[in-house]
Amino acid sequence: MKALVSWPTFSSHPRRKEPQISLRHIASLATTELCDSNALLLTKGDVRVLPPIFNIYGHRRAFSGPIVTVKVFEDNVLVRELLESPGDGRVLIIDGGGSMRCALLGGNLAQIAQNMGWAGILVNGCIRDVDEINGCDVGVRALASHPQKSYKKRVGEKHVPVNIGGIIIHDGEWLYADSDGILISKTELSI
């Protein structure tokens, strides 16, 4: 006589709405193909290539989405506030002034970003908890890792233009990232 096996079923948390992420944000278009197909936009400055200064972290190696900006310096309170809001496949760009003295993103915030549906995070500064971040289904780019946490003074600005590697980036523009590099576009791109 065969024993009946009852497999457990899993459901999402009853009070938490699961984020809806478009597949285009998970399977990002290749930056090389986007450059080749949009050469005129590159020439006009509507598509810009960020300098190759960022390291790749996070489980998601390629990602894209509309940009949300935040400008902070060695303080990540505003970063947490933004990541706790629905991501809807967006990408958070954190202009930390390139500081190498503390981390602006750690494993807890990366997990929040994953849970809230953010496609990716770019940090012009440092991160910590690298192994935890690498286990999260979110794309992360940062200058380096640093073990020290940031201050908690709530100093900074949300939704303002930021300067990353000499490239001015605005809220609502688009970011495309993969192993070959990072593109910023004024509009959503196609091949």
UniProtKB/TrEMBL annotation:
* Keyword Lyase appears in the UniProt entry: yes
Q: In which residues is Mg(2+) bound?
A: D129
Cross-referenced CDD domains: RraA_family
Q: What is its EC number?
A: 4.1.1.112, 4.1.3.17
Q: Which reaction does it catalyse?
A: 4-hydroxy-4-methyl-2-oxoglutarate = 2 pyruvate; oxaloacetate + H(+) = pyruvate + CO2
SUPFAM superfamilies in UniProt: RraA-like
Q: Keywords assigned by UniProt?
A: Lyase, Magnesium, Metal-binding
Identify the cofactor(s): a divalent metal cation; Mg(2+)
The Gene Ontology biological process annotation of the record reads: regulation of RNA metabolic process
- Cite the InterPro entries for this sequence: RraA, RraA/RraA-like, RraA/RraA-like_sf
Looking up NCBIfam families in the UniProt record yields: NOT-MenG, PRK09372.1
| Membership in a protein family | Belongs to the class II aldolase/RraA-like family.
* Assembly notes: Homotrimer.
Q: What is this protein called?
A: 4-hydroxy-4-methyl-2-oxoglutarate aldolase
Q: Which gene encodes it?
A: LOC120278932
